[in-house]
């Protein structure tokens, strides 16, 4: 089986359309269609049913997905292992983290890295969606959840806290909430459930059943800005919210703790440029 065709086949299976696969692979849609046809002719089977809602794998296609994923893992492993013996302090390193971590720590770390190793190019993805290191969506990541994959190397960078905050203008108009009332009579801004499901039920241990949810967001910077603009009470990282002059902390004795982890694939731990980026990030978190 031709790996290039198998790679395109997998992308169609995941995207459900030729257009989606073409966008993911950054090739034209006609090429995707030709490669799929070539693979079907080579195997002598039909791999997809063309339905109004998209491409659906046939029984043969489902078997082909399993085989193609094995090829994908082997190809990814080969690339990681080859990178693992690469000692050049140049080239591209993909880093995945959240927007708040990027702004608070990672960008400054990359500035210091650039001063020392100007030929290392960083591709920084700031998102609350977890990038797959095994599938090489990123080379290393800063996460707020410790992964359990045995192929990943993890190091705790620091521990941080989340506290309750509201705009000073909001508190002047609405007053401070009373503990134990489930934030009755107050507005809240929370993360979408796909980002942090806990916030749909409580903030810093206080239920929000009696509060009005004004906005749900998917990034930390938008959450902070919404609270600072007076939309409602929010649970925010203290290291950022304490520096925002428009915000005031509520119930300082209440907080949620979380760890910050540096994660990289074991196959890349010996790659000089990845190691240099990891060291720069570690140095930006001096306290535990």
Short description:
It contains nine helices and 13 strands.
Task: Please give a structural write-up.
The structure is a single chain. The chain is an alpha/beta fold and 288 residues long. The chain is built from nine helices and 13 strands. Strands 3, 4, 5, 6, 11, 12 and 13 form a seven-stranded mixed β-sheet that branches. Strands 1-2 form a two-stranded antiparallel sheet. Strands 7-10 form a two-stranded parallel sheet. It starts with a helix and ends in a 5-residue tail after the last helix.
Primary descriptors:
single chain, 288 residues, alpha/beta, 7-stranded mixed sheet, two-stranded antiparallel ribbon, 9 helices, globular
Q: Strand-residue fraction?
A: 25-35%
The main pleated sheet reads as:
7 strands, mixed
Look at the helices and sheets and give the structural class.
alpha/beta
Total of helices: 9
Q: Span between N and C termini? A: 50 Å
> Got a strand count?
13
Rg over CA atoms: 23 Å
Mean pLDDT: 89
Give the helix proportion (percent range): 25-40%
Please tell me what the overall shape is: globular
Low-confidence stretches: none
Q: SSE layout and pairings?
A:
Layout: H1 3-15, H2 18-25, H3 29-43, E1 48-51, E2 54-57, H4 59-84, E3 91-97, H5 99-116, E4 120-126, E5 140-143, E6 152-167, H6 168-174, E7 187-191, E8 202-203, E9 206-207, E10 212-217, H7 220-228, E11 234-237, H8 238-241, E12 247-250, E13 256-265, H9 272-283
Parallel strand pairs: 3-4, 3-5, 7-10
Antiparallel strand pairs: 1-2, 5-13, 6-11, 6-12, 6-13, 8-9
Helix pairs in contact: 1-2, 1-3, 1-4, 2-3, 5-9
């Amino acid at each position: 089986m031709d790996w290039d065709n198998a790679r395109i086949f997998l992308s169609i299976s995941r995207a459900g359309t030729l257009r989606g696969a073409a966008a993911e692979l950054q090739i034209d849609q006609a090429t995707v269609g030709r490669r799929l046809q070539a693979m079907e002719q080579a195997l002598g089977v039909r791999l997809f049913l063309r339905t109004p809602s998209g491409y659906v794998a046939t029984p043969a296609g489902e078997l082909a997905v399993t085989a193609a994923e094995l090829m994908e893992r082997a190809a990814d492993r080969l690339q990681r292992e080859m990178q693992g013996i690469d000692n050049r302090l140049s080239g591209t390193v993909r880093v995945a983290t959240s927007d708040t971590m990027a702004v608070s720590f990672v960008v400054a770390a990359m500035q210091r890295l650039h001063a020392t190793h100007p030929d290392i190019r960083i591709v920084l993805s700031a998102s609350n969606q977890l990038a797959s290191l095994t599938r090489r969506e990123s080379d290393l990541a800063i996460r707020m959840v410790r992964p359990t994959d045995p192929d990943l190397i993890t190091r705790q960078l620091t521990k941080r806290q989340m506290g309750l905050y509201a705009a000073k203008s909001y508190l002047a108009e609405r007053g401070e909430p009373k503990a134990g009332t489930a934030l009755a009579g107050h507005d809240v801004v929370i993360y979408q459930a796909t980002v942090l499901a806990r916030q749909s039920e409580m903030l810093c241990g206080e239920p929000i059943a009696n509060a009005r949810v004004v906005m749900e967001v998917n990034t930390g910077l938008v959450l902070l800005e919404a609270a600072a603009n007076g939309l409602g009470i929010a649970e925010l990282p203290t290291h950022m919210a304490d520096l925002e002059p428009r915000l005031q902390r509520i119930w300082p004795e209440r907080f949620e703790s979380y760890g910050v982890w540096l994660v990289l694939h074991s196959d890349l731990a010996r790659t000089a440029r990845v190691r240099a980026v990891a060291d720069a990030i570690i140095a930006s978190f001096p306290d535990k």
